[in-house]
Amino acid sequence: MKPVSVNFRPQSKPSRLVYWLAVAVCGLGALALFSAWTQQLALRSAQALLEGAQQTQLAAARQALAAPAPKPYAQSALAMLAERELKWADALRALEASAKDGVTLKSFEANAADGTIRAELVLSSQARIAGHLGALSAGADPGTGPLQWSVQQTSAEPSGGAVKAVFVARPTTGHHPHVPTPRGP
Amino acid sequence: MSWAGFDVLDVYLGSDKGALVRAVGPVVWRDHARAEVGLSDLLKGVAGTRRVWPAPRVRLWLSGGLARPFVFEPPVGLKNAAELLKLARARAAQASGLTPPCEVCLSDTTVGHRQLAVALNGDLHQALVAVASKTGARLISVQPWWASVQYKVLREQPELQALTVVDTDSVTMLAATQSEWVAAQSYVPTPEGPQLQALVARFLLSSNCSRSQSARVSLDAAAAATGSLVWPWARTQVDEAHA
Lengths: 185, 243
Description:
heterodimer, A: alpha+beta, B: alpha+beta, five-stranded mixed sheet, globular
């Protein structure tokens, strides 16, 4: 014979306090979930904004890297190099070779921008201009020499019959001055 | 005051009388017309009408007239314990003699073999629960008193095959082999003297149990009144002539 183990004890039901506690816990849980959800949304929005800003900054940085700003004094250095590439020696040699009485050198300047050398001379008469131009160009084959001289401007001097003429020497084709181009970093 | 403390109150409830036992103090016996009224009187007699905290814990012991056993042999094909219990409830009224509806507890919920079922009138069960709730008591167990007697006797006689328990309103007889239940029945009201002897003899004969492997235990209200022993074993006395 086995022991009889039976019990008619009623199943205990949860009290109202337990019920309301469960409701409160569920409510708090739902509130916490909703709060977490909204925080997640705000976080994602902020993250998207941050990523957008980062992308913008990155694009600007890339553009800055692609087209770097010229270094300080780069223009001056380039201008100086361009001036050094001018045919100074040829121009001075032509002027020295053509020096005669009645021809006075007033100014001598070089323009590195267009590679020309400009010499302002005062001649004793209008008629000597053509001769002096020939003297400047002497010793060099036309079209193949380093410089091609021309008269740019003439004007009569107030004193006597003197004439002021501006001679311009341009490098001939194939003798362009070598101007270095700036390189990137 | 034991009622307001954490003591466990033992309440015996029969069809016409009940008793309340506390850890300290005499056993209180009361007569009643209905069991739920008797339970209410017993609890109110100690606690009064006001509710107390913590709620007193009550072990409710039911007589064989209220909680009646029967052997339930389930048919083949039941799927689970729920179906087993449902069928046992349907058969309880006819098998136990109680008025339907019946509340049933099974000693074993294993499907497929004979087992002992205990039936209790469903309305009475609800009324007892309602009375306990109304008086602020917490029912920690509602068990047949004869089951506790059987537990004690089995500890002393493990080879026991038949047991007769006589309480205030009934005589409950159980018979079983080592493996399965043979018979279980409560008789209301309790037969007197020679009739009880004849009933026990018939039960042992029909159950194929020897008298040497049977026992008879009776509730002794007089011994209970002394309060000198511990509930519920103290309220039992082995019938020496029968043993």
